[in-house]
Amino acid sequence: MTLRVLLTGFEPFGGEAINPSWELARTLAESTSPHEHMALFAERLPVDRETYAEALALAIDRHHPDVVLALGQATGRGSIQLERLAYNDLDYKGMPDNGGHVVSGEKLHPNGPETLAASLPLQTMCGDLRAAGHPVEVSADAGRFLCNAVLFELRHVHSALPAAFVHLPLLPEQADRRGKGEPSLPAQVTQACLTDLIRQLAPLQREPGDDA
């Protein structure tokens, strides 16, 4: 059976012309699948607290994935980071989203738990990726912007789906334009890591006759 992998990325925000999460999600979905029994799909999510959850739900309904790998931009981080925890908290620290909203100390789901863990074996996956030479780490802090919110939404609302969130550094062209000496990674380096990460999802493939 074919494993259906949904990759999500975000639209550009904060004055950027591009967002590496969407650029890489789209590129991966348009490239040859990293495994013969995998199909990859990509969807771009809005950077807007009012619409991101609905867009995520529509993407899941559209593609009926077996697993979701959500991607997001992480300015200031120098490595690819696998987020193991999502927090029931939304706090923009004064920076508005693309809808003009500024949120401080708000619960994503008022009756939900304080934290939820990603449902993939990230420590093992990270170890294998590092052994292959990829610049990747496991992180316990996904921030409190919409990257964290998407992971929490996946684990709270769509909890039957195996899911994880991956933070990606800026692309060099972004860092150069910003001129602040921020770390970055070339797209081909990040893409190679994500390709191997996706290949690790193969054991999630369902056997014929399994329930849908």
CATH third-level topology: Aminopeptidase
> What's the count of strands?
8
Q: Cα-atom Rg, whole angstroms?
A: 16 Å
The main β sheet shows up as: 6 strands, mixed
Helix/strand/pairing category: alpha/beta
Can you identify the CATH superfamily? Peptidase C15, pyroglutamyl peptidase I-like
Give the strand content: 15-25%
Helix content: 25-40%
- Which CATH class is shown? Alpha Beta
- Strand order across the biggest sheet? 2-1-3-8-4-7
CATH architectural label: 3-Layer(aba) Sandwich
Number of domains: 1
Order of helices and strands: EHEHEEEEHEHEHH
Q: Which regions are unreliable across 5 or more consecutive residues at pLDDT < 50?
A: 207-212
First-residue to last-residue Cα separation: 11 Å
* Averaged pLDDT: 94
Number of helical regions: 6
Could you give a short description of this structure?
This protein is an alpha/beta fold. The protein has 6 helices and 8 strands; from the N terminus they run βαβαββββαβαβαα.
Q: How would you portray this structure in words?
A:
It is a single chain. By secondary structure, this protein is α/β, with parallel strands linked by helices. The protein has one domain: Peptidase C15, pyroglutamyl peptidase I-like (Aminopeptidase, 3-Layer(aba) Sandwich). Helix content is 30%, strand content 20%. The protein contains six helices and eight strands. The protein has a six-stranded mixed sheet with strand order 2-1-3-8-4-7, with helices on both faces. Strands 5-6 form a two-stranded antiparallel sheet. Helix 1 crosses helix 6. The longest helix is centred in the last third of the chain and has 13 residues. The protein is globular, with a radius of gyration of 16 Å. The N and C termini lie close together (11 Å).
